[in-house]
Amino acid sequence: METKKNIFDGRKLFFYAVILIGALVLLVRLFALQVVDDSYRTSAENNVLRYVTQYPARGLIYDRDGELLVFNQAAYDLMVIPGQTADIDTTELCSILEIDRDAFVRKMDEARVFSRYAPSIFLKMVSAETYARLQEVLFKYPGFYVQTRTLRKYSYPSAAHALGYVGEVNSNEIESNPYYRAGDYIGKNGIEKTYEKYLRGKKGLKIYLVDVYNRIKGLYQEGRYDTVPVPGKNLVTTLDIDLQRYGEKLMGDKNGSIVAIEPSTGEVLALISTPDYDPSLLVGRIRSENYRKLQGDTLEPLFNRALMASYPPGSTFKPVNGLIALQEGAIYRNYEYFCDNGYYAPGIHVGCHHFASFNLPQAITASCNAYFCNAFRRTLDSPDYESTAEGLTKWRSYLSEFGFGSKLGIDFPNELTGFVPRASFYDNIYGRGRWNALTVLSMAIGQGELGTTPLQMANMTASIANRGHYYTPHIIKSIDDDEEAVDDRFRAKHEISIDSAHFEVIVEGMKGVVNGGEGATARWVAIRDLVMCGKTGTAENPHGPDHSIFVAFAPDKNPRIAIAVYVENTGFGSTFAAPVASLMVEKYIKGDTENKWLENYILNPPEPVNSEEENAGEEEEEEGDKEKEDEEEN
Fold first, then answer.
1. Reported pTM
2. What CATH architecture applies to the domain 243-627?
3. Which tens digit of pLDDT belongs to each residue from 96-125?
4. Max Cα-Cα span within the chain
5. Cα–Cα dist 236/276, whole Å
6. Residue 29 belongs to what H/E stretch?
7. Which stretch of 29-38, 149-158, 307-316, 510-519 has the lowest confidence by average pLDDT?
8. What residue ranges do the domains of the chain occupy?
């Protein structure tokens, strides 16, 4: 019995000890809260914590020579925490913000739907003047505060398609990347999108103590839990802004595109798509309205023709077909073919305007349809292959080495692949074994089912300029002055399995296009003291006048620029595209244009816009496919 009593007394003492220790812990903690840590005393005096995101400065963007293209300016968002708001003078606040009461009520309702206790944007991007007025009276409006961020600013109203734009994140972007929160901004297109992770930097955070009058009383815990924003990295692009602006000037109100590349590196010197727009239109509170207007414009100024428009390449494709025929042994440099005003085969006639015999360089210079139809047919029907389908497959494999039929991999979103048909494409249409070289003969002169982008044609031209290789086109030269930070794939050489000696034959013919004599299709755009090699072409357009095309590189040895120019609905290649390319090449290499007559011709074109040289030499190459009669199986 005594033993049981002792056990009972021991348990009672243990129980009292636990209560005593617990009480002492609570007293110590209470003392710390009320005496030692004055931040809690501050909170007790009706203070609340405010978490304010510190947005970093977005990285700057420069051209290849260090010219500043894109920078930042301060902007202010009015934030609200609905759960902290009280009865306020909405008349005064609406007057300062220049909104009506209905708009105020609607924005408050939207904020409450988002959260009663988390901050959200009440009004985006208020002006500096409005911000100054708000600062004076903001203490009257509990739950409201201003958050600073930056907006993009542009040195020139140029290069919109290359630079891209920044916009507010949508729900999909928030779901796919935990870095972003509602109200954040992200690169939506162009360089801004591709290099978003470098440009955006890293957000910071400040925690403030705020009293009931919406006044900041200081940093919580003296900033112990604050983080500092990390600015975005600066980018140096490969663009030459002077060349870019000059190209945009030449294109004026014409539709089309220009892509200029440095052959030795793959760096994009100019990327122009017209019609274009001033990039500053997509900044600030006017962005949404302007975007709707641009999106609704029937001329499609938001559409990047340089990367996303697919055209038949026309006669600018003849140099590639010539290279393939040489490599396959279907022809050789001095192989001659007589053009009798076109190419004739059973049931088919492809028109041409020559009555003469040409070797390969001469056929390129004069752009003879008949010569290339014959060379193409000999290539596909080579005795080395069991069928035309096998010959077409081999022909297509060469084109893929130039980058046709797939994305080149430029550092831009939305690049188009173009289209180079496979043998299976014709099998599905005609049946296996029921088609031949004559069925697809239009591709000999760059027509038919072929589809290429201006970027691909500029890259093809750079490949010829390099005599058999290219570097993936790209638009960033360095990141924070570190060239090694640029993706290694842009330094990889892409070799083409065609003998370099064959490229010299093609270069000879392209040299004659601009610098040759009678019959050369673009001799009127020759540049004094500079040898430019080029090729005219016309893309057929079923919806109206044909598109003028010209590809070129210069100088002929150690070339510094390769270019493709497309001017829609302006006819022959030498009418508009060739002069534009010539002026661009001269501008880049010489620093200025001496041929002011040619410049004036482009800026103030005569009516009708046809050159004498054009009519003398180029009609045959562009109109031939239109005269093509119904094809019959051979």
1. 0.85
2. 3-Layer(aba) Sandwich (3.40)
3. 998 998 999 999 999 888 888 778 889 988
4. 134
5. 22
6. helix 2-31
7. 29-38
8. 50-237, 243-627
